[in-house]
């Protein structure tokens, strides 16, 4: 690990000021991605800005059919929250599938969304549920937030403060996980509200999380697993690696989507 300066601000404004003063610095939330990459010397930030003392960034609120989760809320808190389970059970179930108990007890929703790992779980929930990501500067719709592999709409000095999820009528998340890392080889989140359906896919896209528009149209016409018979995402836009090639991932997307629909249809 390379040398770095350590800062522990007590407010979002103080953290944003530190981030603005140290262009090569990094914000530290749960540290489940950043610290391992630093240990491997794959990252060498000049400064670490630890957000853990900012109590205003923790908590869950359900109001008027919207679940708002503050950025430093840990995965285990989302997974076990009675409020989240009542409003959006699929979101609580997703949080319970992340990593292992050590990761779930340290990792945070804000850190996961800001990092936008192409195999992370929360980005699919954000897209499928039409979430809004709120920062210290603005509110960003999920459709405008995720830009590509490890890339988001966040600007210099911008810090996620909360994420708001409108509660759907029906939703389910299905994940085919890597048995070692528990990362999604393919994860599919399906959400239905009124006559509208959103289907988001993680773990498979060469540009990160994406919506499966053809699946959405088919399910809006008939919200049943059979509606996806013969439907598939082109393998040409999917990842191939040592764990699964693009064709296998394309097959898994349809299988996981059908399972998600079957779970709630």
Q: What does this protein structure show overall?
A:
By secondary structure, the chain is of the alpha+beta class. It is built from 11 helices and 14 strands. It has helices spanning 12-21, 34-39, 75-80, 82-87, 89-96, 101-106, 109-115, 122-129, 142-145, 213-221, 246-264, and strands at 5-7, 26-28, 47-50, 60-63, 66-70, 132-135, 139-141, 146-148, 151-152, 160-166, 170-177, 184-193, 196-202, 210-211. A 5-stranded antiparallel beta sheet has the order 4-5-10-6-7. The chain has a 4-stranded antiparallel beta sheet with strand order 11-12-13-14, with helices on both faces. Strand 13 (196-202) and strand 14 form a beta hairpin. The radius of gyration is 18 Å and the shape is globular.
What are the key terms here?
265 residues; alpha+beta; Uridine Diphospho-n-acetylenolpyruvylglucosamine Reductase, domain 2; Uridine Diphospho-n-acetylenolpyruvylglucosamine Reductase, domain 3; Enolase-like, domain 1; 3 domains; five-stranded antiparallel beta sheet; 11 helices; globular
């Amino acid at each position: 690990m390379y040398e770095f300066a350590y800062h522990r601000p007590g407010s979002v404004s103080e953290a944003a000021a530190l981030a603005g003063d140290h262009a090569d610095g990094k914000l530290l939330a749960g540290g489940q991605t950043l610290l391992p990459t630093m240990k491997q010397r794959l990252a060498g930030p000049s400064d670490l800005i630890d957000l853990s003392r900012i109590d205003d960034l923790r908590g869950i609120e359900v109001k008027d059919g919207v679940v708002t989760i503050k950025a430093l809320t840990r995965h285990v808190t989302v997974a076990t929250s009675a409020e989240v389970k009542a409003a959006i059970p699929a979101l609580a179930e997703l949080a319970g599938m992340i990593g292992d108990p050590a990761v779930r007890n340290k990792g945070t929703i804000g850190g996961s969304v800001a990092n936008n790992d192409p195999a992370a779980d929360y980005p699919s929930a954000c897209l499928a549920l039409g979430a809004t990501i709120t920062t210290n500067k603005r509110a960003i719709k999920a459709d405008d937030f995720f830009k590509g592999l490890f890339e988001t709409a966040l600007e210099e000095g911008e810090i996620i403060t909360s994420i708001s999820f409108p509660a759907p009528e029906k939703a389910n998340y299905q994940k085919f996980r890597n048995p070692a890392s528990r990362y999604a080889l393919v994860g599919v989140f399906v959400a239905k509200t009124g006559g509208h359906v959103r289907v988001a896919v993680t773990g498979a896209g060469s540009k990160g999380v994406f919506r499966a528009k053809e699946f959405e149209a088919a399910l809006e016409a008939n919200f049943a697993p059979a509606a996806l018979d013969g439907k598939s995402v082109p393998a040409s836009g999917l990842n191939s690696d040592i764990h699964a090639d693009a064709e296998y991932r394309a097959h898994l997307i349809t299988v996981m989507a059908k399972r998600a629909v079957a779970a709630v249809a």
